[in-house]
User: Fold these one by one.
Assistant:
Number 1:
Amino acid sequence: MSGSVVGNEHLSDHAARDLASKRIIVGYGFWIFLLSDIVMFSAFFAAYAVLAGETAGGPSGHDLFDLTNVAIETVCLLLSSFTCGVASIGSRAHNAAMYYGGMAATFLFGATFLLLEIHEFVGMLEEGAGPTRSAFLSAFFTLVGCHGLHVTLGLLWLLTMMAQVFAKGFRADILRRVLCFSLFWHTLDIIWVALFTVVYLMGAGG
Amino acid sequence: MSEARRADRAPGDEHADGREVADGLRGYLVGLLLAGFITAVSFFIAGTSLVWQPSIPIALFVLAIGQMGVHLVFFLHLTTGDDNANNILALAFGVLIVLLLIVGSLWIMTHLNHNMMPMDRLMPMQR
């Protein structure tokens, strides 16, 4: 990166290429945060993997998990990742229809995912398979619940970003926040991939 | 975006034009199809009796890691480009920590389980 201060009118092609754009620096910083979030999730994954067999005579994943429900949740989250990508392209192109449409679709898919997850949790609690039943269920609710909490916060952030673009327009600083939001949302989908594989697919098979 | 237009802008002000929109959409669509395909294979393999049963967890692991790669490349746009070197290095460090945490925990806990006295003999000794 060039350290010298160059007046705007003298900003040559060379210097313009040497300066990392603010967008790239912001993305990098947020990526570091996301990696720390992933490290936190990996601790919950480790706890789950250690405790997955400790059912204390209670129900195991094989008895509890409904893979059809999980498949629908997965499709919702995957489609929401796609529509989030469409929205981020729309924001960079200053295309309001594409941005708001993409964000609204992302919200609907994300909210559907969340409702399905809450429905699953309530069903398990009614069966007496709450987080207090066994170490396996404590680890399960911590891990999956933490992801669900992230999705909830992501949905709130999504609405905030729609409101900010509505109020302030496609300004460069707002667009960087949209970039951070889309990185966050895509990362949640990556964590869900690990989650449905390790928790649901392996749990239901075992 | 042409070189001449790029030089006109302040860093950070990146306005996508029509071609970039089409390219971007194509990228997300390819990612969606690939990820959807891998997910479908994962769900199929988890429930099938067609393949040798002990290979299923390994196949699921490999598919999950493959799908994470697809997400990183097509959704998070992690590339080998110049401006992405820092992101890749951070990711490599993150993966190292994640592996240490998960493999280390599993390793230690299996050994502890293996070495621990059975519970029915341990409980009376604690009185």
Number 2:
Amino acid sequence: MTQTSALAVAPSETRSVGPQARAWLDANLPDALREDMLQDNKPTVADLCDWEARLHKAGLVGSTWPEAYGGRGLGLRAHLDISREIGRTPMPESVNSIGKELAGPIIMAVGREDQKLDYLPAILEMRDIWCQGFSEPNAGSDLAGLRTKAEKTADGWVVNGQKIWTSGASKSSRCLLLARTGSVEDRHRGLVLFALRTDTPGVDIREIQSIDGERSFCEVFFNNVVIPEEDMLGSPDEGWAAATRVLSIERATNRMHRSWRFENQLNHLVSACAANPATRKLVEVDYARQLADVSVNIDLLKGHVETLVGSLIDGNEIGPRGSLPKLFWSEAHQNFATLALEIVSRFPPDMSDPLRAVRRRMEDIYMKARAETIYAGTTEIQLGIIAKRILKLNQGK
Amino acid sequence: MSDLDFSPEDFSDTARAVMEACATAADLPARIALLAEAGLTGILAPEDDGGMGLALDYAVPVLREAGAGFLAAPLLETMLLARAFAGQDVAAEIAGGKTLATIAWVGEISGQGGVVGRAPLGAEVASVLVFRTDGTAVLVTLGDGAEAQADDSLDLERPEATITVKDVNGPTLDATQVKALLHAAQILRSALILGASEDALKRAADYAQERVQFGKPLSAYQAVQHHLARQCLAVETIRNSIARSLSAHCETPVAAARATFVGSCDLGAFVAENAIQVHGGMGFTWDVPLHRHLRFARTLAAQGKAAELKEDVMQQLLSGQDKEKEPAHG
């Protein structure tokens, strides 16, 4: 077991950092975190924080962040190389992806220097887990309708309102909170961003059980919550404007590893079935054609991701084109999950541990996949974006 | 190629103009002459053979325009043959448009000869590349030990022919050259499908915005918008996958080219089918050319053996062989 950095030498943009990342992950992923092995107990938040802190120490997290904030100062190409290897590794999703892929980049864009130095290293070192307080009961896809109110007083900002679908709020220490200074009629004007400590008096977090059995989702209530002025991110209006710019890039690049994780799931299913005489026919004959279609879709998805990364490196704007990989990935993965569920439903009752492990994994993927066409903009929202902003169709108005 | 002061996209406008000229040309020799005059037949052939010596990505916009413009010529085959026979006399003849040639994509002959098929415009050319059971290929001359018979063909612009070979003689390609040709063909076919799909989507989007029903253009209806958005996703998926297959950063170019082609066949047919759907009854008429794109996409799938390639994909999955460890390809 090595704890030294996998990326001891800062590589140039042309040399892949992938092989070093691969070697580190192979040597260091604990069996207890492997998603392709049968686990008696789910890893705890503490286990996951420990693992993710080690990933950061090894240089596999925050690769594109400046070194002053705990990053490696590398480019997007290196991030893609590392993401591929993370995807190929059957490890849990980050418990702090909101911190690493949303709050962090927004803080970098609009935060004061003291905020950056305070918040950013804490995200990578897993001292702070972030959640995102954007959606509300009446402002889901239509975020500009949000009602949570922030009033400026002598003691700081006083916040009242409610957020919902706040993933991971009960495990988090910070919330990227979006509130408004004026009235709902102001729509996109008067929105203000805060880095709220979730242990602030008046913050009430309640878990919501989701269809996969998890309790990650939360509702968060704010009752006269006082937020000090220094925890505001950017000025009112400015913070949100910058945040939306960051969001359009993040939507296109977040969880860049997912095509390779998807491939890892497919390979796990196929290899586990092929290794057992009782299930070999399922993949060699019965579902061979559909599994080949899944494999082709994974390559097509890589086409979206890699071309988009290349385009960002060339300095192009992504804009509405971020909807293309999101839509393609969510539907392809959901279709795979449905196929995988049918295949594992035909496993014999006296199945071996490896088969039990793949069945449990595929069942979990199937239930979780229901959310994939909903979060980060539903399928219907993505299709609308493509129709209106890419095809620019005449809306007849 | 990075020192070139022009990019692949710089060929689009020229290519589009040539395709428009070809649409009104009298016959195949006239069309090949127009293509050769613009240098497009020899775009991949070495400069020593009278070509432009450009990389594969320069052929993509040209074939995209050919697909969009219903080009009735075996341009993909001509480009590939002029490149594959580099250094042999026939390369210059094909690159220069002097010898009309095509490829019989399906079937193999033995040493004694045999019957092969799916040669686009095989009944109108002078030479046909025929694959052999040992993995090599030979360029036979029609009327000299080989005969072409026009076949029933789904594709209207490039009707296919069956080739009967009795005497096997002509310039040959070794197995490595054949492999390289087949790999390139997968990407270039995808470029043809990309062009056909772009044109089908454009026609559907234009029609939906012109056609008014119940006081609104069809494009104002969300059901129609979502149809068109899905077609757009399909077109962009083909485009991005071609780009990935040709990128120096692609880890698995062989698997990527195969997936690009197999995916493009399904996606290209999807776009054409849905463009017909958006046109309603008009879409089912012979005069609306969407069926020509659909016929083309389906025929290209058969010529490139898309269905068989899915079996290869599955074999690779089952072998547990990492795609990234794929053998380097010429």
